[in-house]
Design brief:
The chain is an alpha/beta fold. The protein is built from nine helices and 13 strands.
């Protein structure tokens, strides 16, 4: 993909997708020509994009009424709306529409040379204050852009779990680790509700421009917390939803207030928010 094409997509966003009404909760896949602007998973050229969508378009969901994913009071309810932002999946959580997921065809964009200048990842890595020997989980690791940087910081006695739900991404990632002779990374094929990490094993969980795409944010937050050690930290990096000047589609940005609202129902406490990155929040939580 050329820079001009990338910039155009960042401005215009996503093409429409097809939704098929079925009873209950349905998993289905839609291939798109272009993807919505989203640095975590933008696409390349005109290749099709695999989008994982979860919709329920019957009964009270079709009318926009709230539907609880479990017993009453167990979790904040999800809502489903037939009319919604084309960049989203029509599923809402605590007032926010969940964004579409981008596919492995986007991997070339993750490695774009200008990312260093646009996001300044070194500032994030410094803010994490990692120690040699840490166990870190890179959730939505993609091509391993951050994974390989984390691996260097934790050293050979440390470990990085690189978690993704797309086998194709993990193949790209493991090939890159082998090429660079990085041996302290363990690839993990997660699901949309479970990162499949060992319980109480992780010092720090990092999610860079990923959380807003979780199909099941409540379930994922709970599962991630279970993987943290007592006192372990969870760090979300999200483009600033409060700033209209950040050139990202609205559903692929989050405000600090919304992040804290959603993670407030998990066994976490907010620690601080850093604004050292040019366009992104770095929001720190600690396991209670």
């Amino acid at each position: 993909m050329t820079d001009a094409q990338g910039n155009l997509r960042r401005t215009l966003g996503t093409p429409p997708f097809v939704a098929v009404p079925l009873a209950g909760l349905l998993f289905f896949k839609v291939f798109c020509k272009l993807c919505p602007m989203k640095p975590q998973n933008p696409g390349g050229g005109s290749s099709q994009l695999l989008v994982l969508l979860i919709c329920s378009l019957t009964g009270s969901a079709a009318s926009g009424q709230a539907i609880s994913p479990g017993p009453a009071g167990a979790a904040p309810p999800y809502e489903f709306h037939r009319d919604h932002d084309p960049d989203g999946i029509g599923k809402f959580y605590l007032g926010r529409e969940i964004a579409q997921v981008m596919g492995h065809q986007a991997a070339d964009w993750l490695e774009r040379p200008e990312r260093e200048a646009e996001e300044k990842p070194g500032l994030l890595l410094e803010a994490l204050k990692l120690k040699v020997g840490y166990v870190v989980a890179d959730i939505g690791a993609g091509s391993g852009y951050y994974t390989r940087r984390l691996a260097k910081l934790v050293g050979q006695n440390g470990l990085v779990y690189a978690v993704d739900i797309q086998p194709e991404m993990l193949e790209l990632l493991t090939n890159k680790m082998a090429e660079l002779n990085i041996r302290n990374v363990r690839a993990v094929l997660g699901t949309i509700t479970d990162p499949r990490l060992p319980a109480s094993s992780v010092d720090l969980i990092l999610m860079v421009d990923v959380y807003h795409e979780f199909d099941h944010p409540y379930e994922m937050a709970q599962a991630l917390c279970a993987a943290l050690k007592p006192g372990g930290r969870m760090v979300l990096v999200e483009f600033r939803g409060e700033d209209p000047k950040v050139p990202i589609k609205p559903l692929h940005k989050m405000s600090q207030a919304q992040v804290r609202k959603e993670l407030g129902v998990a066994p976490l406490e907010w620690v601080e928010t850093s604004e050292v990155m040019p366009r992104q929040h770095i929001i720190f939580f600690r396991k209670n």
